[in-house]
Amino acid sequence: MTDPFIRTIEDAGREGPLAGLRLAVKDLFDLAGVPTGAGNPRWLETHEVPTEDAAAVALLREAGAKVVGKTITDELAWSLNGTNAHYGTPENPAAPGRVPGGSSSGSASAVALGRADIGLGTDTGGSIRVPASYCGLYGLRPTHGRVSLQGAVPLAPSFDTAGVLTREAATLRLAMGVLLEGAAEAGPITRLLAPQDIWDEIPEATRAAVMPKVEELGLAIDREPLFAANGDAAPLETARVAYATLQAWEAWRTHGAWIEANDPEFGPGVAMRFANAAKLDQAEIAAAQRVRSGVVALVRDRLPEGTALATPAAPGPAFMIGGSPDREAIVRLTCIAGLSGAPGLAVPAGTVEGLPVGLQLVAAPGGDERLLELA
């Protein structure tokens, strides 16, 4: 197994609400005087060492968190597996021999191993929520734009968010309280939408492990389908395809010129995704944007104040290192939050054959604090 840290760091720490807590930083975030590698050696070679901390790192440090290291990430954050062709696969102590989930793999591993209390990560399409589920952790993808990404390597800017992973709900709430800018005013969550059309797609073992956690919250549960019948035989798959298309389009717009100029060596999955992204045409992008607009309206309509969407955070437990994940099934569960800019919370829910699986709760944009209260 690979150590989650690319570099360990000596940091004295400061006074503040996070004093005494150790912080592991995903290698997308700048640390003053420390190279940012974004999971790829060629990126490391072609970028200068930063002179300032990323905004999120600075906030956590100012609140007293002590940086203990930079952690492995999937290359340019474009994967959900937690593997890296150059630096290896960080250990998942909750599921030995299995992936930790990505792309915030090193941060999740460091927290799960007890080598950090807070793992700073990013979530574009599930990169906090999936590792949280696989490693038995708490994690929050915040409302898009609520946490600054200044000083962090982007992937798909209209989807990218920064959040944290922790072992305890109280630590998650404390750390996210530092990062969230401005307190959102809203009432508590009193109702959960656990839509039949999504839950019917979940493997039986995962349903049996996660649904009791939904019921344990003691809130009213609505099982009405999320997607109304509209002639689309697979509306959740349509949403996934739209997400994947727009993410790829933005990823190529963000990194295509650097890739063409520097010819980096990527692992096979990341290389294939960038190659396909370069071929997208405007008709595909326009169709995906229309679907995204529909999902934004759907979330606004079906998740009013006081309501959260409840689904598994992943279709099942972490897969074996070297195995083949069902990436599409994972993204079908994570894409609603990404497409709508909504916050998504992952909490430990149960086990399948002794391996952790998580519950995902999604609120309308701005509902971060209400989700943290539920945690």
UniProtKB/TrEMBL annotation:
PANTHER family: AMIDASE 1. Residues 13-180, 264-372 form the Amidase domain. The lineage of its organism: Bacteria, Bacillati, Actinomycetota, Actinomycetes, Glycomycetales. PROSITE patterns: AMIDASES. It comes from Glycomyces luteolus. It comes from the Bacteria. Its EC number is 3.5.1.4. Pfam families: Amidase (PF01425). Keywords: Hydrolase. One of its GO terms (molecular function) is amidase activity. This is Amidase. Residues 87-106 are annotated as: Disordered.
